[in-house]
Amino acid sequence: MDDSSLIDFIEEVSGEVHLRVEESLGDGFVRLRSAEAERRQAKHDIRQVEDIIIELLRNSRDAAASTIFVATTKEGSERRLTLIDDGSGIPEGMQALVFEPRVTSKLDSMVMDDWGVHGRGMALYSIKSNTLEADICASDLGLGTALSVLVDTAELPERSDQSTLPTLERDEDGTLAVTRGPHNIARNSIEFALAHRPRSKQGGITVYLGSPSEIAATLIEYGQQNLDREDLLFCSDFSTVALCKRLALCSDAADLVKTGRELGLEISERTAHRILGGQIEPVKPLLDSVLPRRGNQNAGGIDLAKDARGLKLAREDIESFSRDMERAFEPLAKQYYLSLSEMPKITVKGDCVTVRFPIEKEL
Predict the structure, then answer these.
(1) What is the four-CA torsion angle of 118, 161, 322, 275, rounded to 10 degrees?
(2) Percentages helix, strand, coil for the chain, rounded to the nearest 5?
(3) DSSP state, residue 233
(4) What is the C-alpha to C-alpha distance for residues 256 and 247, in angstroms, rounded to an integer?
(5) What is the pTM of this model?
(6) What are 116-164's pLDDT values in tens digits?
(7) Which listed residue, 8, 140, 201, 286, has the most CB atoms within 10 A of its CB?
(8) Are 285 and 327 in contact (CB under 8 A)?
């Protein structure tokens, strides 16, 4: 029996364990099957969470998106990344297939950019192979795409400092470049936004980055500014409206929670009320947060506590801490017949973190 026949026999009786090998070459060498080679390449393509952000942004760019919204939050070791764009969209029948290897819409338009070759049909497969979840939340042709990814950072690492924004400076030719700052999610997103910055005579890509609640507020503002008469005619049927405009059509907090969840944005009804009440403000375009300004190069940071001289906390960490404080308050509330009128307020000043509980007395 030759090596090939032996391998075929072993596969029949042993199942998938041996399906990785196409041919034994002797002396311990084998030829991998294409599926196994692709799996190993996928593991190599994504080394850290920040790689996922770049791949998602490049996918949106290649789908002709001009506006991209990125929401990120972290609970324990799990980070959720949700990207919503106004690109060409993915038809329903392709939404599962795009996560398979070598599936691409760019047969004749493979791109070489600052991050290497893109268009091999491996980006989403690589992301799926390295994460707990990767799903298309909503999409259709001409309506854009909402995609959500859940990462276990204990398995796929990320930069420990996710709160610091990078510094942008001009070189001798007056060209803006990122010069300092950790290579975190914000920096990678800013570098992409800078490389695709809209110009006065040609289009570009505008990127927004924030927590799910901030991105929801931003999508409402974006939708209100971009809704047209046709959108309003079909306001009872969101499936015909571009994804980036749908939150602007929500009539109440419950509707906002439901539509947000359909786009991969998990927000509570309490948070939805705060958004609709103007308590959570939209974020500015990402580059506006770091473009050099006279007297303050990093004015208007997207997710930092304002006092740069003392402790700095990411906004998503502040929101997570606030939710923890809300749960911790429950036993006291039951004992003394109290209720929270809104989420606990977390303020950071100097090297002090202060928690304030706005309460109402129950009669």
Answers:
(1) -40
(2) 40, 25, 40
(3) H
(4) 6
(5) 0.72
(6) 665 566 788 889 989 999 999 999 999 999 999 999 999 999 999 998 8
(7) 286
(8) no
